[in-house]
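Researcher: Here's a chain I'd like modeled. Treat it as a single chain, no partners, no ligands.
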Amino acid sequence: MKTKLSPAAATVIFAAAAAVLLAAAVFWPQRFVPRTTTLNAGMFLCLAAYAVFLTRWSGTALRAIFAPLLILAAVAVVAGSVAGFVVPAAAALSSIRSGICFSAPVMRRITAEILTGPAGLALVCLLQPPGAAGWMLSLWMFGLIQALYFIVIDLKRPPDLGLTDQDRLEAARRRAGTLLRETKLERAFEELQLSSRRSSDT
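Model: Modeled as a single isolated chain. Structure tokens:
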């Protein structure tokens, strides 16, 4: 599925959706599952959905993000606190975004990741409101900061992203037909040159 929604705009939307999901996790009755587990699971699901969007937008194979998401899922299970999961989650986002999905000059990617990763976490930590709702607002704030990444790297849509598989197949068929016609013309010219040489010899 292709989308015309820009990653920066999608990041803001995902941030709002993640905040709503986390709010539900915060206020959900904690009878059988600890709140920490619920919050970490909610953040993991949001990050996984966002990673899928990034792969689809950039044209990256979905299987490329399986390994980092699998590792992050294991971290979510063993993390003893929300704070213990946030940093690995931010690192996973960075690796998926700059290491797998998007290509840009190295220094530009590093600058973008520093601004949205460590600096973003530090800012959120300083401004985090107290109480259970603080995690919800902090996640929303961190998600908004992530939109800066695409501004810093000056991301542009891949030129063929809007093409479907059928479009690509048709384009390949046309190129093959053109190449075949050019080959036939070359052979015809060669035969004409050979025939003209033979007639001149006689």
